[in-house]
């Protein structure tokens, strides 16, 4: 990551503000409402508006997916530091029920998981960690489940 981009992510608050103003998030109506100071967690929400509602009156699926798209990659990049390569490898989304109103997703990256990734990549081997995150409506019902796979390797 170049120095200028690294400055954008220098603090949790800067990351939250930058992502909320990021054109794809802004256009989809996605807002990052919380990023932990140690980058161990984040919360993202999507309020239903005319521009992110589909033909049948529910959240547009692309907006639901975009809520989850960069979060684990960005959190892990910050937790591991610049000695690691972290990329999104694959993702899938399962739409469980129609989403209406405000929906939220919460992302957790535990110390144990970060240490496991460090251990598995310390010899330069790649590792493909996986995460699942639920997108919940206002009543706590699952609207969608996102499965993410990242590519992680220590730089040579």
The beta-strand count equals: 6
Structural class: alpha+beta
Radius of gyration, taken over Cα atoms and rounded to an integer in Å: 16 Å
Q: Determine the strand fraction and express it as a percent band.
A: 25-35%
CATH superfamily: Hotdog Thioesterase
Main sheet record: 6 strands, antiparallel
What is the overall number of helices? 6
Q: What is the 3D shape?
A: globular
* Number of structural domains: 1
What's the rounded overall pLDDT mean?
91
Short précis:
The chain has 156 residues and is of the alpha+beta class.
Characterise the protein shown here.
The chain is α+β, with helices and mostly antiparallel strands and 156 residues long. The chain has one domain (3-154): Hotdog Thioesterase (Thiol Ester Dehydrase, Chain A, Roll). Helix content is 33%, strand content 32%. It is built from 6 helices and 6 strands; from the N terminus they run αααββααββαββ. The chain has helices at 3-8, 12-21, 23-28, 61-68, 71-80, 111-121, and strands spanning 30-35, 41-46, 84-95, 103-108, 130-136, 142-154. The chain has a 6-stranded antiparallel beta sheet. The longest helix is centred in the last third of the chain and has 11 residues, at 111-121. The chain is globular. The chain starts with a helix and ends with a strand. The mean pLDDT is 91. Pfam families: DUF4442. Keywords: Signal. This is DUF4442 domain-containing protein. It comes from Marinobacter qingdaonensis. Residues 1-23 form the signal peptide.
Features of the shown structure:
156 residues, alpha+beta, Thiol Ester Dehydrase, Chain A, six-stranded antiparallel sheet, 6 helices, 6 strands, 32% strand
